[in-house]
Amino acid sequence: MAVTTRLTWLHEKILQNHFGGKRLSLLYKGSVHGFRNGVLLDRCCNQGPTLTVIYSEDHIIGAYAEESYQEGKYASIILFALQDTKISEWKLGLCTPETLFCCDVTKYNSPTNFQIDGRNRKVIMDLKTMENLGLAQNCTISIQDYEVFRCEDSLDERKIKGVIELRKSLLSALRTYEPYGSLVQQIRILLLGPIGAGKSSFFNSVRSVFQGHVTHQALVGTNTTGISEKYRTYSIRDGKDGKYLPFILCDSLGLSEKEGGLCRDDIFYILNGNIRDRYQFNPMESIKLNHHDYIDSPSLKDRIHCVAFVFDASSIQYFSSQMIVKIKRIRRELVNAGVVHVALLTHVDSMDLITKGDLIEIERCEPVRSKVMNDALRKHIFWGMLLQSHTSVYKNKNKQLLGLRRITKLLK
């Protein structure tokens, strides 16, 4: 039978995040393997960095060893106390595993201000240690259970190899994609969302992957001002002199609950293909039919084939009622027009408790799912959502996967 941890999902993520995004692999559990220090040391020595988690009636405390436990050798120990969702730490310093886990201090003649006594099921520490960890002034804590985890890099060689292979597969799928029926050579994807949500940043991220270096063709603004004032249609070359990829990303002026955002009528004209590349938006009125950038009889290739609503994942909870009404109204028009649309959430990697290993399958990451879905449901704007990282992705293969996956799903 598999041995499972007593840690809640939330506490495990907090500990992972606090100690460098490590993946925790359970080595020892007192209630299963026995509260005997000899057994603990046999299972946990020479395992690399380890995290010991101690459960008492009122506390979760423990010790993080930065180096592998080895018999008679010192390791750097960091003590911690986890209370609700807050974690405090204190550097104990160098300590041998025999001293840390010994049930008889005098046997080793090496008294310490923190000791895990497995045989007698208690933790002994001095008042200064208790104070530094923010605990009540009680020198002895009873142990209900305790566990030792091996702390592994969240991206080991096997996972890194998997990321590289998946990246190659996604790149190949995008390069060879053919729009249905070959009616058009390139699918047009409109990026639509509030000012400063990250529309231009998303395009730059995708282009950087195919160009092989960081690019900033689309200028990027801030969360509150944005910078896109023109309608831009961006084709992306596969490499410096390669062919154009089978999709075009279209950027526009951001949505605003106040004056200064994209006019509702202009959205209709963009969807219908009536607006030419580089048209300068006027926030106060939509394009005139006699404007030189107005296309009178657009062809199928000029039309928008898919819309991605781009939202900053951390800002959904702050959407005003006016913005929600505007988004819902636009969505109804898209449904009536038969235009496929999804929500693309940016900046998910800046959310609390996200580790670098989570970026590989961000949709399955519980902190993201719970927060984003709760925010979306609370604002009644839930539908198919795609998740995207922060702005710069080129040097991070995990973040590159996010951009490639998002485009692949938009084309399906």
UniProtKB/TrEMBL annotation:
InterPro entries in UniProt: P-loop_NTPase (IPR027417), TLDc_dom (IPR006571)
Top-rank taxon: Eukaryota
Entries under Gene3D superfamilies matching the protein: P-loop containing nucleotide triphosphate hydrolases
Residue span(s) of domain TLDc: 1-152
Any one biological process term the GO annotation gives: response to virus
Keywords: Cytoplasm
Subcellular location: Cytoplasm
UniProt main location, coarse: cytoplasm
Protein name: Interferon-induced protein 44
